[in-house]
Amino acid sequence: MSIDRPKLWMKTKDYLFIILGIASYALGFNAFIATAPDKVVIGGMAGVSQVVDMLTMGLFGFHVPYSVTIFVANVIMLSFAFKIVGRTFVIRTLFGVVIISILFAVVQPLFHTPPVAGQTFMNIVIGAVLCGLGLGLVFIHNGSTGGTDIVAAVASKVSNVSIGRAMVYFDLSIISSSVLLKCIFMPGFELSAAVPALVYGLLTLFIIPFVTDTMINTNRMAVQFTIFSEKWEEIATAINNEAQRGCTVISGMGWYSKKEVKVLLVMCRKIESVTIFRIIKSIDKDAFITQAQVNGVYGKGFDNLKLKMRRPGQHVNHPHLPESSSKVI
């Protein structure tokens, strides 16, 4: 039995980057957000672990490590959701659940005060950015650690609520409930003092998805050029030879002039766009050019599609997500 080394290396690299991404998330949350003096609660399973810690401390007088809550809650949710979301989703998620639980257990005891003393806003922003970067890495490499995604996947499966909306509802309920718990279990706590923590929590709901999306889109971002020029042959040859990019020649007709024209269609990385512009302008200063952003170019010279093909007769476990692209945390 031969070993496909390229595929083995690709899978190994994916898992290494997933671990690195989860480590970034664990550092951002435990070091910068969880240590904030305002007791800022964020969304996701990390926020659930904060709420559980508040409850156990208020009712029984002891803390529950975030790692324990994250692991137990995910396992319980996966066991209930197994028949709904399917075996593939559960297996992929368990790896992430184990890794994030281990890393949270290692990182949490290391930080008791915010790294940036006296700057709650800066700590929240830095922590949210690190969380977003971590999630972006995990998403790019097809990772999954479950969390609120399990709840969202089940809600979307059994109702008409979209995954994104279900996750927003769930995260907002976590952050809002933290205010109520503080009023009940923290003696002398005033409702006005909850406003900063609530605002900071909502701020993370904007920063984390924004950074995550930026990571994902930057990784796939490309540029599409549409070039109109009488010197199209020279431009196409120069782009082939100097920029090492292919050109597609499309036949068209200018409706005003009623003349046939040749249109060049070129795909390139965003960082290569300046080179393409220089080539065109050095040959034809009067060339008509349009440039458009493209999120995702797949094929020779660009990204490889990482999709797990379904076997004949196999159903997709979730109506909105392919089995190989489960989300994270």
Spans of at least 5 consecutive residues whose pLDDT stays below 50 are 316-329
- With strands numbered from the N-terminus, the spatial order across the biggest sheet is 2-3-1-4
Count of β-strands: 4
* Distance between the amino and carboxyl termini: 36 Å
SS content category? alpha+beta
Biggest sheet architecture: 4 strands, antiparallel
Topology pattern, helix = H, strand = E? HHHHHHHHEHEEHE
Shape: elongated
Radius of gyration: 25 Å
* Total of DSSP H or I helical runs spanning 4+ residues: 10
| Percent strand | 5-15%
What does this entry show, briefly?
The protein is an alpha+beta fold and 329 residues long. It has helices at residues 5-33, 44-60, 66-85, 87-107, 120-140, 148-158, 163-185, 194-220, 232-243, 273-283; strands at residues 221-228, 247-254, 259-269, 288-295. Helix 1 (5-33) packs across helix 4 (87-107), helix 2 (44-60) packs across helix 3 and helix 7 runs antiparallel to helix 8.
